[in-house]
Amino acid sequence: xxxxxxxxxxxxxxxxxxxxxxxxxxxxxxxxxxxxxxxxxxxxxxxxxxxxxxxxxxxxxxxxxxxxxxxxxxxxxxxxxxxxxxxxxxxxxxxxxxxxxxxxxxxxx
Amino acid sequence: xxxxxxxxxxxxxxxxxxxxxxxxxxxxxxxxxxxxxxxxxxxxxxxxxxxxxxxxxxxxxxxxxxxxxxxxxxxxxxxxxxxxxxxxxxxxxxxxxxxxxxxxxxxxxxxxxxxxxxxxxxxxxxxxxxxxxxxxxxxxxxxxxxxxxxxxxxxxxxxxxxxxxxxxxxxxxxxxxxxxxxxxxxxxxxxxxxxxxx
Lengths: 109, 198
Description:
Chain A has helices at residues 5-14, 21-31, 40-52, 79-101, and strands spanning 19-20, 56-59, 74-77. By secondary structure, chain A is mainly alpha-helical. In chain B, helix 3 (46-97) packs antiparallel against helix 4, helix 3 packs antiparallel against helix 6 and helix 5 packs antiparallel against helix 6 (169-190).
């Protein structure tokens, strides 16, 4: 089953490093050049669902403890999350390959 | 933006968050308020942020409603599955106790009831996720069978009743079985099985 767009992008930006909510929001915007913007409600709603599904987990560690607000929650992608992300990337890859082979007058730039 | 102004926006946002369901608010309310403040501190325009926040709020409300409906449907299916399980054990007990005297159909009925109840619980728990579509189809067939069996029972009981000495028990049992199937079917289309953690 395809991942919801917000879930996919959250997993994607967590794949390279642990992040807190603000960082996830900003990295998602940057990655998609502002095309995907998550409001605080949508972001935490998605984080809650991903956490309930075991695809991400909340962690106590802080990347730079002395520079960080201790009240912030950090999130890390789990092994199950990496598998779900991999499956979604594979699915998208197949879609792009199909589009490339089809006579759509389209090619990736 | 001054810290006072940011505090004011955060206080207003806290009021707005009071509209969201308590489960969501209790879990993430403080994080959202902090994030709202962080965005203002980092230079986000307040008007732009508020414009983004309102659709965001609607989205959370809709998602929470879906979650509540799913929860209610899961509760209904879980409760309904206890009926066939209990009845299955009773029929199995009768079949064992009266072995040889009762029709051979009885053990099969017990097995079907136990399978129906057990299967529903396994589906709800996400234990059948590997065969998700097949398992859901099997459950739908089971619920439709209950509706048909209950309706046939009612029709048969009504057709064969004696006006001077009517028996209402078969009609009542038929109605319960058909209603059980109908509610189960509706809940099945609404409920989502639990997603396995790994």
